[in-house]
Amino acid sequence: MAITPASKSHLEALINFNTAVTQRMLESLHRLGFLNMHLARELMAEWGQTGQHLMGSANPAEFANSAAHSGRGEQAGNALRNYQQGLADLLATGCAALAQAAESHLPNVSRSANALAEELMRNTREEASKASDRQRQMLEQMSAAGKSFAASGADGHGQARH
Q1: Using an 8 Å Cβ cutoff, are 13 and 105 in contact?
Q2: Which of 66, 77, 92, 138 is deepest in the core (most CB within 10 A)?
Q3: pTM value?
Q4: SS3 label, residue 4
Q5: Can you tell me the distance from the alpha carbon of 111 to that of 106, in angstroms, rounded to the nearest whole number?
């Protein structure tokens, strides 16, 4: 089966749509990776500072005091709040980018799908008409052959079976 212009146009529209959506998703995943790395850096820095304070303790009382102050997790809480805010922003912009990609490509996909459906219906009607014509011709030939056979039998020219 040959690829028709409508088929080609529809496939191109689908590929363009899928490419745009995939690109937006990859951009969001890229931003998510950076967000995760930023959180990891903040947490590692906090843990490193906490470890330095604990290791620098001269006596058990100072160690307990450093451990109590580092155990509050204020910096970790800030880091997690920043992460949550960044994640919410990422999701909002990602959804907006996907919606924009859909808005810009779906009308073309819809037009090309309609054109393809019209072409398929036209081709189906043409093929059905051709099949009907072939069937009619075959019936006419069979009818003519039947009349010819009947006429030859009525004239006595037909051969008898033994």
Answers
A1: yes
A2: 66
A3: 0.64
A4: coil
A5: 9
Q: How far apart are CA 54 and CA 62, in angstroms?
A: 8
Cα separations (Å) of 65 from 2, 49, 154?
80, 14, 125
Cα 153 to Cα 31: distance, rounded to the nearest angstrom: 90
For 21-29, the CB contacts below 8 A with 24+ separation are 21/98, 21/101, 21/102, 21/105, 23/101, 24/94, 24/97, 24/98, 24/100, 24/101, 25/94, 25/98, 27/94, 27/97, 28/90, 28/93, 28/94, 28/97
Q: Give the Cα separation of 145 and 58 in Å (integer).
A: 117
Helix, strand, coil content of the chain in percent (nearest 5): 90, 0, 10
Coil, strand or helix at 73: coil
Q: Report the C-alpha gap between 149 and 162 in whole angstroms.
A: 18
Query: For tokens 């090309």, what's the residue?
Result: 112
**Hey, CA dihedral for 78, 84, 87, 92, is it positive or negative?**
negative
- The tens digit of pLDDT for each residue in 84-136 reads 999 999 999 999 999 999 999 999 999 999 999 999 999 999 999 999 999 99
